[in-house]
Write a structure and sequence with these properties.
Chain lengths: 50, 219
């Protein structure tokens, strides 16, 4: 099997990372996220077991 | 074009249509679904979707026997456009609302908490650019490997969500309805179907979609 071009993969991953950072500045403030963290929102009781 | 090629193309079109229908049936029953048109069948839509996948497989067999080269070209084109387009469509709402998507990612309780927001920012961009690249560039194999790895990650995340009965929505194509659906296993079935054409694409040579149809660009 032919080898993969790692430079292409790295370029796409790098481009995605860069645009991900820029996108967080672009979107409306209420839709931005902090750089580290994440909030788990538990399901409503009526949804459990559906 | 020989008569064998015409019949092979017809079988391939049936196979692609059947596979497309199965994905719509499973993931977007509101858009187009056999089951959606008949209330009594709606609860069987996953079974109908899986039956359509089996049907697609049965259509592939005569197509490849009649003209393997043409069938492979059609399958490659349809897989690249279909899967690439699906990833682009799936990425769009997540890019517009990182906060909403981060909440969805957190529901999986799969990633370390510090990485959830970073993942919610990064993954939609990766989906968008890999989806575009597999359609519009020549790097088919590199992009197919990345799509395959993403599918594997989604399958593992969805499987653990189903296994732990988290009762969460997939968050694959919409933010609305998060926390109120229990459709992770439906998305798991869809991903388990689509991972196979992605795996097959890895075996195809690097070339543009136009190159797929050039003379001499044999399978």
């Amino acid at each position: 099997m032919k080898t993969l071009d790692r430079k292409v993969i790295l370029a796409v991953v790098g481009l995605s990372a860069l645009l991900a950072v820029l996108n967080n500045f672009r979107v409306a403030p209420e839709k931005r996220v902090t750089w580290f963290g994440g909030q788990i929102v538990l399901p409503e009781p009526e949804d459990i077991g559906r | 074009m020989t008569r064998r090629s015409v019949f092979a193309a017809a079988w391939m079109l049936l196979a692609v249509a059947s596979l497309t229908l199965s994905v719509l049936e499973i993931s977007f029953p509101g858009i187009f679904s056999v089951a959606f048109r008949f209330d009594a069948l709606f609860m069987w839509r996953i079974h109908i979707g899986i039956a359509e996948v089996v049907l697609a497989g049965l259509f592939l067999w005569p197509a490849f026997r009649l003209d393997a080269d043409l069938s492979a070209r059609i399958l490659e084109t349809a897989s690249r456009v279909g899967i690439g387009g699906m990833f682009v469509a799936a990425s769009w709402f997540k890019i517009q609302d990182p906060q909403g998507f981060a909440v969805l990612v957190a529901q999986y309780q799969f990633l370390p908490q510090w990485s959830v927001n970073l993942f919610a920012l990064f993954m939609p961009q990766l989906e968008l650019w890999v989806g575009l690249a597999i359609v519009f560039t020549r790097w088919n194999r590199e992009m197919a490997v990345m799509l395959f790895l993403m599918f594997v990650a989604f399958i593992v995340a969805l499987a653990q969500a189903v296994g732990r009965d988290l009762g969460i929505t997939c968050g694959c194509f919409e933010i609305d309805g998060a926390l109120s659906k229990k459709d992770a296993w439906i998305s798991l079935v869809r991903d388990l179907i689509l991972v196979w054409p992605t795996l097959w694409l890895i075996t195809r040579p690097n070339r543009t979609l136009v190159g797929v149809w050039r003379r001499g660009g044999a399978a």
